[in-house]
Amino acid sequence: MRRCPDLSLYLVLDPGLCAGVGMVETARAAVAGGATVVQLRDKAAGTARMIETGRALKAALAGTGVVLIVNDDVEAAVAIGADGLHIGQGDMAVTEARARIGPAMVLGLSVETPALAAAVDPALVDYIGAGPVFATPSKLDHKAPVGFEGLAAQVAASPVPAVAIGGLKAEHVAQVLKAGAQGVAVVSAICGQPDPEAAARALRDRIDALTV
Ligand SMILES: Cc1ncc(COP(=O)(O)OP(=O)(O)O)c(N)n1
Ligand SMILES: Cc1nc(C(=O)O)sc1CCOP(=O)(O)O
Ligand SMILES: [Mg+2]
Where do the annotations place Mg(2+) binding (predicted)? Predict the structure, then answer.
């Protein structure tokens, strides 16, 4: 049976922002600081490079309990033996994604409106990435920002748990959780920070103060 992972602190890796430290070391640091999910997102990589990086990430995360999700590339996700795949509305049909990854892997789907959230099939999809809450330079083609009210509407409409994304920093954790999301997904709040472990811990501490 599939299970939704602990979405509370969801790191989305960006190779450009992680350039100084590297994606694997950034993931290690984020996990030490309390990340619960790591997503490999490299929009410029082909499948071979995704597999190479994904295998290194899988080795780094082994034994930590932290879940490895692969963005977009279903072939890489399966080859890596990742815990899951994340797709957006334009990437591929959820029916096809589920058929390709099988029943055991986690499937995440991006939604940008309450109507898209309401249309999610919980038999196929395990969680939604809800947003974007704010505009962000980390995804140049993001949809219109929805703010915390829009986030709450997406969460309320969804039959599966949500992780919020888009311009989120530690000071936004309380409003994200108040909107009903199970966690925060971040790129630049961790990737490229001078101390990624401390950056992750700052998020973790706010989450724990509100949920533990
Ligand atoms: C957790 C999470 N939420 C949303 C996204 C965005 O996915 P998508 O809309 O497919 O855009 P790209 O990331 O592929 O550019 C995500 N990756 N993760
Ligand atoms: C990968 C991604 N997806 C988004 C969406 O709205 O679906 S926003 C985004 C990037 C989020 O980066 P940061 O935490 O640096 O703002
Ligand atoms: Mg995508």
Answer: 72, 91
Q: Would you tell me the crossing angle of helices 47-61 and 23-32 to the nearest 10 degrees?
A: 30
Number of domains in the chain: 1
Q: Please name the helix (run of DSSP H) or strand (run of DSSP E) that holds residue 205, with its range, or none.
A: helix 196-211
Residue 132 lies in a domain: no
- The ligand with the least distance to the CA atom of 128 is 1
Evaluate whether ipTM surpasses 0.90.
Answer: yes
Distance 127 CA to ligand 2 centre (A): 16
Instruction: Tell me whether residue 41 is annotated as binding.
Output: yes
Tell whether 82 is covered by a domain.
Answer: yes
Q: Left if phi > 0, otherwise alpha if psi is -120 to 50, otherwise beta: which for 147?
A: left
Q: What angle do CA 52, 55, 56 make, to 5 degrees?
A: 90
| Domain around 197 | 9-107+162-211
Q: Specify the CATH number for the domain of residue 61.
A: 3.20.20.70
Quick check: CB of 163 below 6 Å from ligand 1? yes
Residue nearest to atom 18 of ligand 1 (CA): 129
**Å from CA of 72 to ligand 3 middle:** 5
Confidence (pTM): 0.98
